[in-house]
Structures are given as C-alpha cells and as structure tokens.
Amino acid sequence: MRHFIIRWIITTVAVVFAAWVIPGIRVQGSGASLGAALLLGILNAFIRPVLLLLSAPLILLSLGFFILIINALLLYLVPSFVPGFSIDGFGSAFWGAIVIGLVSWVLSAFFRGSDGRVHVLTHHAKIKQVRGRVVAPDERT
C-alpha cells in the first residue's frame, strides 16, 4: 500500500507540474490533481497495456513514436471523468504526457530500489566487509 501511495504522490506532482508548464492544461484544486493522477495511474495500469499490444505494428513502424500518441490519448481521456481537470486540445495532452512521463521518471529515480519496485530511500544499506585479498591477474603464482 505504501508503494502505491508513493507512486500516486509522484504522479500527482507530475500532473501539477505539467499544468504549470503546459498552457492548455488546468487543474483546479488539490482534489482534481489527486483524482487526475489516480485515474491516469489506473488507465496506465489496465488500458495502456492493451492499447500497446493492439497497436504494436504502428509502434514498430513509427519506431516507438506511437507510444507518445497512446500516452496523450490516455491523458486526453482523464478530464472526461475528473471535474476540475481540463485539457484544451490534443496538442496540450501530447506535451503534457511527455512532461508527466519525464517528471515521473525523474522523481521515481529517487525512490526506486534495485528490484525495480518503488522504495523510500531513507538510508544506505550496511557495507559488508570482504575478507581476503584481491589478486591481480599478473600476481598469480
């Protein structure tokens, strides 16, 4: 549950940042930003994989560019269900999806563990002492 909340907060920050940077995206209040981030996360978790699978030929032909179109379409769908969150047009959704993706990626780097799951980085693991000595290749007997 903690990982879900951290991921939700990261996406919320990314949505608010996109609304601040992209002129055609508007968020009215923290409830709208939390709702938009939650719905965007649900769409990305359940709908996006199906769309990626169905559009695999287009993704291959466009060398991956069509993934950006899918991300923009999912973001463009969010204002239909979240009051207080609006996007003026597909261009704003396109650039907003890019900004949200980049900000989420950067923020997730601070919380991601070596297993790929999101963890809060609070301290470093203890460094284990290695006994013995390292032998260089030219020191072999």
Count of alpha and pi helical runs: 5
Provide the β-strand percentage band.
under 5%
Mean pLDDT: 86
Structural class: mainly alpha
- Summarize the helix and strand pattern as letters: HEHHHEH
Low-confidence stretches: none
The count of strands amounts to 2
What gyration radius follows from the Cα positions, in whole Å? 21 Å
Largest sheet descriptor: 2 strands, antiparallel
Helix content range of the residues, please? 55-70%
**Termini, distance in Å?**
56 Å
Shape: globular
- Please state how the strands of the largest beta sheet are arranged side by side: 1-2
Structure description:
By secondary structure, this protein is mainly alpha-helical. Helix content is 60%, strand content 4%. The protein is built from 5 helices and 2 strands, in the order H-E-H-H-H-E-H. It has a two-stranded antiparallel sheet with strand order 1-2. Helix 1 packs across helix 2 (30-54). The chain starts with a helix and ends in a 32-residue tail after the last helix.
From the structure above, extract its key features.
141 residues, 5 helices
Topology:
Blueprint: H1 2-21, E1 25-27, H2 30-54, H3 56-61, H4 65-77, E2 85-87, H5 90-109
Antiparallel strand pairs: 1-2
Helix pairs in contact: 1-2, 1-5, 2-4, 4-5
Brief account:
The chain has helices at residues 2-21, 30-54, 56-61, 65-77, 90-109, and strands at residues 25-27, 85-87. The model has no long low-confidence stretch (mean pLDDT 86).
